[in-house]
């Protein structure tokens, strides 16, 4: 056609300007190696003996049981879901629940062997952390260093192995930051950052304290001409994802408290009113003990990272990271309730801050030797390498002995022996699992269900005996309907003395098997029923 | 899920210009070099527009460009407008000519075709009778033609009277997002439904392709589709200082009629299947989506109230109910971006946007969607019944009272 011939030959759209390649750029394989090697090292240390250390935690059992409920179509929990936490964390666990089947062994209590699901979470967090380091302008070696600090600290090894919601929240907040720092300054990446931040908060609500740091990063990384839209995109992405939670409650008519049902408002009120642990600064307070237990595992990352973050507040590119550490530190210092896993949310930023300071030190040393390099050009490159090596040696000397000790325990200790053996005992001694009723803590619940006890009413979370009217309704004779109650450190916690049914059951039972000693003691107690005439 | 995809797709395309700072920078005119190369023939079809015509032509004559002529096209049955046109022509015989369209049934494309043989310029530009054109526009368009060697330059058009009514606010925003953003996406992907005015085409290309389709209700869209299918390159340039300012229809019914006409025009273009000759699958999909939008919108207009009724009245599991809210998410993000767009609009045009306007923008959203859906359904209905009559949009000059085009660009373009 005529027109085609007149206009088709017009030059095509001009090509996009290519990113200029600096002369002497290092080879392309260096990037992947710089992130994969440290990630693999982290995975190796975290995977070995993952079920043996640390001791299985009641919270892990809770989230895994709830993930089990989701996976088996029982809703968001195997008991009434009461809005204690937003459910996105264990929804993610449920999505990965095919994974443990590939690796789990019967050597450990099920809750501990299901920890395999945390390895991909750690791996993804490592990759995102490296990417974030690079996008903040750190060199490759500093990115690798951040990954190693993040994943190999004995504190990290013990906490990242555990099936805790905070690890999921960290993964998503890192994703949000990586998206905010995108060099393309793409509106949709910024909107996706808001969505990722929303997912992070719905995974673990406490991560919300990091929002100002995220906002600062987005402000710094967006272009003035499109910033308004980027902020609106991120804010609406965040708000809308978050709004799904109250919307869910609203649709279930559980948004506000009312007679005979749980509510989101009630759940929030419970979390906000949890008894405070006292000031970190006053010795002997619960919060101080918490801090001491963190410091027992690792002082380098915690204290070193904190100091590094304060130093980096002065450097614009690293300021959002420094702000993140500062926000978390301030939250921890206030005298309110401090969950033991709270420190998880700080680990990547502490690692990044340390790596950032290391990069500054190396740069300064390199600058200091530059005059020498000018006089003797041949010595320039060796001097620079020597500077990096010196800093590296100093750091390793400082960290390695402490970490080696902690990580060696992590890969060799058998902290879950008691639980492992208790689970095995129950498996072999409950003769009629389909009709048995056993009260256990959350750690052992999954094993009982696997052994064939009825979820919820055969295998019973001990505190539901007193706290869930639905469970009490299914036990017409109260504690006398139980066959066994397992007394574990969780059950013996001082706060549980108010659970009268549990206390009565413990009082009317005899020990038939016991494992471990001291505070770790686990007793399997058979209920001794009274003659029927005495009545309840 | 379909509604979600639809809302999400619309949002994605709507935000094209702001996607990256580079995209945004590309959407502006490049600064002219001060030389002039092309001769322009500017067509101004006018029908019953004696109230605004003299002002419009007056603005065109204020252009700082020297090589151009203005052809006012009037109907033989419209003595009022003809008188105004001839009066202007008599005052500026070297610039302005009047062309009389004698078709029994009048339409804009017929009027434009009538004038095409009289055009002496290398480039034909089209304006509406109520347009306010910036004096520096022709210089910028000339530069755009010469520096890129494209076949078509589409300038920005902006409804400006956002304070007139609740729907004018939304209508202005619709234009803002369309010309500021969406058209650039179309230009880049090689499928563009052109706007009805401030569009400039090389006369040679226009004549080769046979001018406008006289029977199409969206002759501008049709021209764009035919040119795209022939592989013509188009640049779109939006510059707040340089846009052609227009007013919204003066009544809601007027808006409904105007939108019905456009939608019906889109359906006609769709049915002509010229777009199937576009070279790539992506272009054809974009064409199918864009031209079929009246259908989709009519469908959404029927389904959304049904869905809301179902969600409220029927007992559905919580999971299903949550999923049924999914299309609302992109819709709400759209509203958020529109609010930011309104702020940007206020900044760019130096107009004071009050918090009340943001409230109106948000609250008006569902009702405006209902008007659009109604127009889409009306278009489908009229097209099925074979009603192809031209429903004219009336103009009263509401935009002429708005603050005038600002000075800085004049300083810049001469510096």
UniProtKB/TrEMBL annotation, chain A:
Q: Which organism is it from?
A: Kitasatospora atroaurantiaca
InterPro entries this protein is in?
LipidA_mod_glycosyltrf_83 (IPR050297), RgtA/B/C-like (IPR038731)
Compartments reported by the entry: Cell membrane
Membrane-traversing stretches: 29-48, 88-105, 112-132, 138-157, 164-184, 196-219, 231-251, 294-314, 321-337, 343-362, 383-404
- By what name is this protein known? Dolichyl-phosphate-mannose-protein mannosyltransferase
Question: What does the entry give for GO biological process?
Answer: lipopolysaccharide biosynthetic process
Its record classes its membrane topology as: Multi-pass membrane protein
Which controlled-vocabulary keywords does the entry list? Answer: Cell membrane, Glycosyltransferase, Membrane, Transferase, Transmembrane, Transmembrane helix
């Amino acid at each position: 056609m005529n027109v085609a011939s007149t206009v088709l030959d017009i030059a095509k759209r001009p090509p996009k300007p290519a990113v200029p390649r600096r002369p002497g750029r290092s080879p392309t394989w260096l990037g992947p190696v710089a992130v994969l090697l440290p990630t693999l090292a982290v995975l190796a240390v975290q995977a070995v003996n993952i079920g043996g250390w640390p001791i299985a935690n009641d919270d892990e059992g809770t989230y895994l049981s709830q993930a089990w409920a989701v996976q088996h179509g029982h809703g968001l929990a195997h008991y009434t879901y009461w809005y204690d936490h937003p459910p996105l964390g264990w929804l993610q666990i449920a999505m990965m629940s095919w994974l443990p089947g590939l690796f789990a062994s019967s050597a450990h209590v099920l809750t501990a062997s299901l920890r395999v699901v945390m390895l991909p979470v750690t791996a993804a967090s490592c990759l995102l952390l490296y990417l974030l380091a690079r996008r903040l302008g750190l060199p490759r070696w500093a990115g690798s260093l951040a990954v190693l600090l993040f994943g190999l600290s004995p504190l990290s090894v013990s906490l990242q192995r555990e099936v805790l919601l905070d690890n999921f929240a960290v993964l998503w907040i890192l994703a949000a930051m990586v998206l905010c720092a995108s060099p393309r300054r793409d509106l949709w990446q910024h909107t996706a950052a808001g969505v990722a931040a929303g997912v992070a908060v719905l995974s673990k609500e406490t991560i919300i304290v990091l929002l100002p740091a995220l906002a600062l990063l987005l402000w710094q990384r967006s272009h003035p001409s499109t910033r308004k839209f980027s902020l609106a995109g991120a804010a609406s992405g965040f708000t809308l994802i978050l709004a799904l939670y109250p919307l869910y409650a609203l649709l279930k008519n559980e948004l506000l408290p009312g007679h005979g049902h749980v509510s989101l408002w009630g759940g929030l009120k419970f979390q906000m009113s949890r008894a405070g642990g006292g000031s970190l600064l006053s010795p002997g307070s619960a919060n101080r003990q918490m801090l001491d237990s963190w410091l027992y595992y690792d002082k380098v990352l915690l204290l070193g990272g904190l100091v590094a973050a304060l130093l980096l507040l002065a450097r614009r590119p690293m300021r959002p990271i420094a702000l993140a550490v500062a926000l978390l530190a301030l939250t921890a210092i206030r005298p309110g309730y401090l969950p033991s896993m709270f420190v998880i949310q700080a680990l990547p930023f502490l690692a990044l801050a340390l790596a950032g300071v290391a990069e500054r030190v190396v740069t300064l040393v390199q600058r200091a030797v530059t005059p020498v390099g000018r006089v003797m050009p041949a010595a320039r490159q060796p001097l620079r390498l020597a500077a990096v090596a010196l800093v590296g040696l100093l750091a390793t000397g400082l960290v390695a002995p402490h970490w080696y000790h902690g990580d060696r325990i992590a890969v060799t200790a058998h902290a879950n022996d008691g639980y492992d053996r208790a689970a095995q005992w129950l498996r072999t001694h409950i003769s009629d699992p389909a009709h048995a009723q056993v009260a256990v803590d959350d750690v052992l619940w999954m094993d009982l269900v696997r052994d064939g006890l009825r979820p919820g009413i055969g295998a019973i979370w001990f505190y539901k005996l007193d706290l869930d009217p639905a469970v009490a309704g299914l036990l017409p004779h109260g504690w006398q309907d139980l066959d066994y109650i397992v007394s574990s450190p969780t059950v013996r916690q001082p706060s549980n003395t108010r659970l009268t049914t549990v206390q009565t059951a413990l009082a009317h039972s005899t020990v038939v098997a016991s494992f471990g000693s001291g505070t770790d003691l686990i007793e399997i107690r058979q209920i001794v029923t009274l003659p029927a005439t005495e009545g309840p | 899920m379909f509604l979600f995809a639809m809302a999400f797709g619309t949002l994605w395309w709507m935000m094209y210009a702001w996607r990256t700072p580079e995209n945004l920078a590309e959407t502006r005119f490049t600064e002219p070099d001060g030389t002039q190369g092309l001769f322009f023939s500017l067509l101004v079809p006018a029908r019953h527009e004696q109230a605004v015509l003299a002002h419009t032509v007056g603005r065109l004559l204020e252009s700082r460009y020297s090589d151009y002529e203005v052809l006012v096209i009037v109907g033989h049955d419209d003595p009022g407008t003809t008188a105004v046109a001839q009066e202007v022509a008599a005052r500026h015989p070297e610039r302005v000519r009047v062309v009389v369209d004698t078709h029994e049934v009048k339409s804009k494309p017929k009027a434009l075709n009538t004038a095409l043989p009289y055009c002496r310029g290398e480039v034909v530009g089209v304006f509406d009778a109520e347009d306010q054109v910036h004096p520096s526009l022709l210089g910028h368009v000339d530069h755009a033609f010469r520096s890129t060697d494209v076949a078509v330059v589409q300038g920005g058009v902006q409804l400006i009277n956002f304070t007139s009514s609740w729907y004018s606010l939304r209508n202005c925003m619709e234009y803002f997002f369309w010309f500021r953003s969406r058209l650039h996406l179309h230009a880049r992907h090689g499928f563009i439904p052109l706007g009805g005015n401030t569009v400039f085409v090389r006369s040679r290309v226009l004549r080769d392709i046979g001018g406008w389709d006289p029977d199409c209700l969206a002759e501008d869209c049709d021209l764009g589709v035919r040119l795209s299918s022939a592989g013509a390159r188009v640049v779109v340039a939006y510059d707040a200082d340089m846009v052609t300012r227009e007013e919204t229809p003066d009544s809601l019914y007027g808006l409904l009629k105007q939108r019905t006409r456009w939608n019906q025009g889109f359906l006609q273009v769709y049915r002509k299947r010229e777009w199937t000759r576009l070279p790539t699958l992506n272009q054809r999909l974009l064409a199918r989506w864009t031209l079929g939008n009246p259908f989709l919108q009519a469908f959404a207009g029927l389904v959304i109230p049904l869905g809301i009724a179902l969600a409220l009245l029927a007992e559905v599991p919580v999971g299903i109910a949550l999923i049924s809210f999914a299309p609302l998410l992109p819709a709400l993000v759209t509203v958020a971006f529109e609010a930011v767009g309104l702020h940007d609009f206020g900044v760019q045009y130096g107009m004071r946007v009050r918090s009340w306007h943001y409230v109106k923008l948000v609250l008006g959203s569902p009702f405006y969607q209902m008007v659009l859906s109604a127009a889409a359904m009306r278009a489908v209905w009229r097209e099925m019944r074979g009603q192809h009559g031209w429903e004219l949009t009336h103009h009263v000059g509401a935009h002429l009272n708005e603050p005038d085009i600002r000075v800085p660009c004049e300083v810049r373009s001469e510096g």
